[in-house]
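Researcher: I need the complex structure. Ligand is 4'-deoxy-4'-aminopyridoxal-5'-phosphate. Inputs:
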Amino acid sequence: MNPLYTSLGTTIFETMSARARATGAINLGQGFPDGRGPEDVLAEAARALVEDSNQYPPMLGIPALREAVAAHYSVHQGLDLTPAEVVVTSGATEALAAAILALVSPGDEVVMFQPLYDAYWPLIVRAGGVPKLVRLEPPEWRITAKALSAVASARTKLVIVNSPLNPTATMASDAELALLADFCVAHDAIAICDEVWEHVVFDGRTHRSLIGLPGMRERTVKIGSAGKIFSLTGWKVGWMCAAPRIAAVLAKAHQFLTFTTPPNLQAAAAYGLGKDVAYFEGMRAAFQRSRDRLAAGLTGLGYAVLPSAATYFLSIDLDRSGVGMGDIAFCEWLVEEAGVASIPVSAFYVEAPVTNVVRLCFAKADATLDEALERMRVRP
Ligand code: PMP
Ligand code: GLN
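Model: Output:
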């Protein structure tokens, strides 16, 4: 079993960022943009810090942000959430922890998909849940009805869905969403939907949330992150949206995790969520250009690049690139010999890892991507 999951190991993101710092490598591992983020959102955070209260804000979040989240999802995703159904958290990471602690009791079975974002497994196991893993494979990384029914049981309590999916950069298709909705309804299960990448989608795609599907309004926790929406990953402002019956329980867990989130950052997120559609389109277009720049450069160097529909990431298929080593060995070689940090996708598997895929973050300035590509002219 992957050692990260047998004890509380260090996440691959921290491990590779530390290696990048130690070796002076360009860090295309951990996913964060190198830009400043929107200046007006930063200015609102600064204004609120100086002019507004810095004492404990309301436990559920400041009203302006809860209203802004509900209004934002009405405009951008056609959802009918109310502010009362929004609980503000300190990042999506806290939202995941709160949702899992609130909803998982010892012995409950939790369906998860590998590759899985690193926080899910440790939280589920420490809550006493029993992970039931569905393994996804490249290049499509698709969920099938057969794989889902193989993990179903009378104890199925939760399904954790991450779409767009980090690290594969794929989005759940309409057919997969329907499959997941039918599964949840049939097993009376709740879906925790990690949708932090909902705005970072490319080529004209639009994000669809499971909460909008028939039967799911009453059984979905929709999680979002201002860090991703505004390209400010250090901010750690997130939220969970759920029907009142579930939101009340989520709030109970949240109150003992962080209780509140810095009020000025909440105010700035509230302001930013109201930005016009052009902002979101511009942000997507800029990341899409960076994606295309890195993909074209890697292709030119003879690497086979898997499609990236969303997120800050694209992946190299090592087998099809003629690289005769596994992902961990390649990432080691890349950071030490070429001076570029990346992430081995096998780190996102608890067991039976896919070992021929390496994730790179393209959310960087052109000059940084070009320098990384220059360094990657050397081949293993
Ligand atoms: N879920 C996924 C799938 C992520 O990729 C990330 C971070 N990129 C998070 C959760 C954590 O989000 P936050 O920084 O808001 O805690
Ligand atoms: N979500 C970011 C990534 O996938 C990193 C988050 C973290 O460092 N925990 O790279």
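Model: Summary of the prediction. The first helix runs from residue 3 to 6.
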